[in-house]
User: What shape does this take?
Amino acid sequence: MMETRFANKRAVVTGGAAGIGAAIATRIAAEGGTVMVWDRDADATASISEKVDTIHGMTVDLTDPEAVNQAAAATAEKLGGIDVLVCSAG
Assistant: This one.
């Protein structure tokens, strides 16, 4: 039986374009969630968002507070809110 603990949840995964972050983003999507990946690697971000329909990507410099604020606002608008934050960058 497939787990659905993230059904109807909207998640942000920082550093989610590769490695552990990508695995987390993929798992959340597999369990029914919609994911916005924030990563500084534009190519990797585009790649993961092309693989899974419910994973979206945004290139974000997490060291820039204004960029983070803009990304949060844009993500909330696109997804209709944010329920889960996974800090995996770094």
Q: What stands out?
A: The longest strand covers residues 34-39. Strands lie at 10-14, 34-39, 55-59, 84-87. The helical segments are 19-30, 42-51, 65-79. The two ends are 34 Å apart (CA to CA).
